[in-house]
Amino acid sequence: xxxxxxxxxxxxxxxxxxxxxxxxxxxxxxxxxxxxxxxxxxxxxxxxxxxxxxxxxxxxxxxxxxxxxxxxxxxxxxxxxxxxxxxxxxxxxxxxxxxxxxxxxxxxxxxxxxxxxxxxxxxxxxxxxxxxxxxxxxxxxxxxxxxxxxxxxxxxxxxxxxxxxxxxxxxxxxxxxxxxxxxxxxxxxxxxxxxxxxxxxxxxxxxxxxxxxxxxxxxxxxxxxxxxxxxxxxxxxxxxxxxxxxxxxxxxxxxxxxxxxxxxxxxxxxxxxxxxxxxxxxxxxxxxxxxxxxxxxxxxxxxxxxxxxxxxxxxxxxxxxxxxxxxxxx
Length: 330
Hints:
Layout (H helix, E strand, L loop, with lengths): L1 H28 L7 H19 L20 H11 L7 H12 L10 H7 L4 H9 L8 E10 L17 E4 L4 E12 L4 E8 L8 H4 L5 E5 L6 H9 L2 E5 L12 H8 L2 H12 L11 H16 L23
Parallel strand pairs: 1-5, 5-6
Antiparallel strand pairs: 1-3, 2-3, 3-4
Helix pairs in contact: 1-2, 2-3, 3-11, 6-11
């Protein structure tokens, strides 16, 4: 027992010293990061320790039959931390972030840093860890949820014929903006802007198709646009304890809608704001991918970085001492 406790103490001291180095380096560089790197590293390292203990014999998704597991002097928790930090750094490309920020200034915080080319080789091995870690970053079910989808383009539409990286995995899709070639990211958030569910499908997938799988653990009310209108889908979700509420089309019969539901329908722009932040702040979309695995790493890390944003778009529905509202609103 003494050996086990001493090992835990040494591990804790090592982690605390690394956290202090990160804080010192960040404050000295006056880095304008939107994320708390200390909190990210603590959470990632704790998750990695438990994951490595129970899932070591499980083969990685990127492993080929007969291939030895990737080993490096740099731990995967450090790789995950750097990848997530990129999505809150403000840099447009990961190469600039790694060569201009990480290598010159973070050497003391990460003494086992490798070259840029070697780091790119290590990134696919963190995909499974990032995917599992993202599941722990989901928000709470509050009873008010919003659903929407956003295109993730993999290349310019004019170059779709010559694109080979995602051949057979993507498709053509069309929205109110126009045509796009790539994937479609389906999201469900709560009224606090926290992620509840997500799914990636080809761009030509119907928005209503992945909804039953995404809403298995969600109850209350789900607000969406006219693309989710379906009697079959409404009845299926209603049996699960989830009420799907959408706007009506012009050729549909008008139905009575509760005042509160009508107000929340007008607040559906909340999830569109989240999609905008994921693309412009977390940078989950760009056309420079040369590997499917690194595309997934970029997507998962961007979603994780969003969950660590100190201020997320929200409806601010917390009670503020107002008098009781009439029951007709609800």
